[in-house]
Specification:
Blueprint lengths: L2 H7 L8 E3 L2 H9 L8 E3 L4 E3 L5 H13 L13 E3 L7 H4 L1 H33 L3 H8 L2 E4 L17 E4 L5
Antiparallel strand pairs: 1-4, 2-3, 5-6
Length: 171
């Protein structure tokens, strides 16, 4: 047996009851319709036959009758269905009050959280700073010894053993 049939056969426990409030009025109005407006059961073929007038043609007849100022006596009222189940709605609507309370509590904690964040950021930046002594060594001009001249002991292109003042990069 397929699952959908099994679910139909087993009654649901604690299922909400749905009931039509105006069932008698709807049945009476449908029974009062002319036979041309209703489908009929054909005993010879054992099938339903469609009505002589389609719903579209019935609606057009009704519109022309009402436009002519005459009364249309074959209106069928809509079924009114009531249920014992509460309206579920959307989860965002159900949680709105709870969420507003959470937001209020979070906003009350916000000044302390911002202060703690700013303090932690100041401490992190201070720990990440380069030591001033090392920074001074990198940024100030320094004396470099040039490499010894290549070749025989003469004064090569680089000035052979002299010290020169070189500006450090970045300044």
């Amino acid at each position: 047996m397929s699952s959908y049939r099994w679910k139909r056969l087993v009654p649901k426990l604690d299922a909400p009851r749905r009931r039509t409030v105006n069932e008698a009025a709807v049945r009476a109005a449908r029974a009062a319709l002319p036979p041309e407006f209703r489908p009929s059961w054909d005993e010879t073929t054992r099938r339903w036959r469609r009505p002589l007038f389609s719903a579209r043609r019935i609606a057009a007849l009704r519109a022309t009758t009402l436009a002519a100022g005459k009364e249309w006596k074959w209106d069928v009222p809509h079924r009114v269905v009531e249920s014992d189940a509460p309206f579920k709605g959307h989860i965002r609507e159900r949680r709105w009050a709870e969420r507003q309370a959470e937001i209020g509590a979070a906003m009350a904690r916000m000044p302390a959280a911002i202060a703690a964040f700013r303090l932690a950021e100041r401490q992190r930046r201070a720990a990440a700073k380069v030591r001033p002594g090392l920074l001074d060594l990198l940024m100030r001009p320094r004396e470099l010894e040039t490499s010894p001249p290549l070749g025989k002991g003469g004064a090569g292109r680089r000035g052979g053993g002299k010290t020169t003042k070189v500006q450090a990069r970045g300044t």
